[in-house]
Amino acid sequence: MTTPSMDAAGPSTTSARPERGQTAAVAVVVVLGGLLAFLFAGGSVGLVRGSLHFNCSWGIDGEWGPDGSWACADGIGYLGVVVVLGGMSGLLLLAGLLVAVARPSTGRSVVYLVFAAVSLAWVGFWTFYAATAYTGPRPDGETGVSLWISTVLLGLATCALALLVGAVGALTSRRWSPLVLWVGVGLVLLGTALTPGIAIASFVSAAMLTAAGVERHRRR
Prior knowledge:
This protein is mainly α. The chain has seven helices and two strands, in the order ααββααααα. The two termini are 40 Å apart.
């Protein structure tokens, strides 16, 4: 009867250490993205209230003034916006942490890319709703759709382009793949700068995009 040697267990223990390190790195990225998203969450209120005129009414003459003005609800009236956008971001971040425990693979990277896309789609849908929900009178020549296009579309489209670029870097195994990944992450930050009110979702997308690629490149 032979006794198993200690050397037999050595390789599995050694190979597990890098994998745990990759899991920790991905978790840190997801948590950092979440912190940034919630730090800038207040900007979403400014976007839907001040720019998209959600929960606002337009009037002219009388108490509205000769040139017309918007009257909007107070800050409490916009807590629902933070809950709707922040709730989705929170769910995606929690799911991202749960996925981090899976083995690094192309499949895991694809899941993170899907999370990044869902975050952008959600903020795009809800900002469009906020811009078009009001059906009362507006300033001459203004529509909800045109307001959304001029206010949100450029930043959101930049983030969507960033996701496509970053996905190439995350899912390929070329020498230039890490550079392409970081270009994608940089474009997400640019899109956020163009439309700061989407930061509650775009920072989550940036974190998911980073998680999709960094751990794969770390293990090569």
